[in-house]
Amino acid sequence: MFFDFIAMVKFMTNCSLNKAYYKLHSLSKAASILGSVQALLDWDQETYMPKESIDIRSQQIEMIASLVHRDKTSKTFAKALAKLIDLPSGTILDPLLSDSQVSAVQNWRRDYLQSIKLSNSFVKKFAQTTARAVHAWQAAKECNDFALFSPHLEKVILLSRKKADALGFKDHPYDALMDIYEPEMSSAILIPIFAQLKTALTALLKKITLKKPFNDEFLYQNCTKDKQLNFANKILHSMGFEPHVWRLDISNHPFCATVHPRDTRMTTLVHPENIMFSIGSVMHEGGHGLYNMNLPGAHYGSPLCEQISLGIDESQSRWWETLIGQSFPFWQHFYPLLQVEFPHQFGNISLAVFYQAVNAVKPGFIRIEADEVSYNLHVIIRFELEKALIDGTLKVKELPEAWNSKMHSYLGITPPSNQQGCLQDIHWACGYIGYFPTYTLGNLYSVQFFKAFEKAHPRWQEQVAQGSLDFISQWLKENIHQYGRQYNSLQLCQKVTGEGLKQDSYMNYLTTKYSKLYDC
Fold this sequence. Notes:
Layout: H1 2-47, H2 54-72, H3 75-82, H4 99-115, H5 120-143, H6 146-167, H7 173-181, H8 187-209, H9 225-239, E1 246-250, E2 256-260, E3 263-268, H10 275-294, H11 310-324, H12 328-341, H13 343-346, H14 351-358, H15 372-391, H16 399-411, H17 427-430, H18 437-456, H19 460-465, H20 470-479, H21 489-497, H22 504-518
Parallel strand pairs: 1-3
Antiparallel strand pairs: 2-3
Helix pairs in contact: 1-2, 1-3, 2-5, 5-6, 6-7, 8-15, 8-22, 9-10, 10-11, 11-18, 15-16, 15-18
């Protein structure tokens, strides 16, 4: 009887503590719903919003950002969280929480402690400033006038410095900003990784550029927007996108807005004379979209229904864009379909020649159009410029010249205009300082994950060549997507691959692939 009584007490205690967990989840879900409204406002601003609506849109975004911050830092939320975890020490107070619930609570605490360091007035000001900066960036890029954007960028940089100071850092203010997007990452970890990558990539690039370039002129012929989008939609369906839970639209800069697992908004940018850009960007954003769709919707509003980090998120987009979308087996199936759709352009081009063309290494000015070998050099340039902007060693007015100098030094080319240089990305206008390193981290993670995938599916090439992609999406869901933020990036990497993050696997992949392609 005594043991029955103990069991009953434990059961009642567990019910009570679960009630505390579900109350916390409910409070968090309210903030997530408001956040999804902000995501829709951002999506609309980039797609359909009339240009003259920017004043009211900036006020809308300011208000929503304020409400989200208020909910995430309220006394009610803090009280509910404190019942499950000691806020100062991080000690879990509920021994009956499941492992996934413990992880959720720990992430809630991390987010809460980070959020309370920023005042609500600062959050509102930052949101309004970046909304206006995005609008100014669009105009500046359109007419190639950096002076239109420069004063807005100065405000964003100033506020980002203040944000870094408020959040706190050990070695460099940039680390505080990078931690928002890639928790536990720091300049001390990245600088040696990027240095080794830069050396290896520039060496490989020099070897390749000494070789005869591939013929890729046939790729750059006029393809109507509707036909490009129709073909892109066929690929998304094959990747495993369910009907009626996603959209694909047009924007100045391709992106994926993750509103809810049942509501994914993706965009692409269609170049009439470059269909491969559209295909690549759609598969890239599709990788983000699948990650969002495969998160466990039952946990929506908690960290268990959120992407681990932008590095892991980016690993999913680069996985689909490059490891699958630029692979020979993928085009064994899709190239004949492309030839049927565009017979004038591709009808007389062999698969072998086409495969070489889509993997041609040719340093260019635009990051999102870059080949695999030069891509990360674009990211490293932005990483170095961002750090300098934040610590004050580089002024905003000096940015175009500094950008061009690094492009010439690392890639051997100089942008002919700011439109193709420092105005090409939307991230700084959005206030996403510290975001860019996650693109290269995503590349590193993607190749390490892919090695594990190949062990599980040694005949993947045969299946892909037959048009089967669903098994890939399923493996990603089971090994990455379903966990939400139960693990951090490094923990997940260890769990999936059996090893920590390193650049060796990525460079081995690039060297093997392109040495074979270019016989170098």
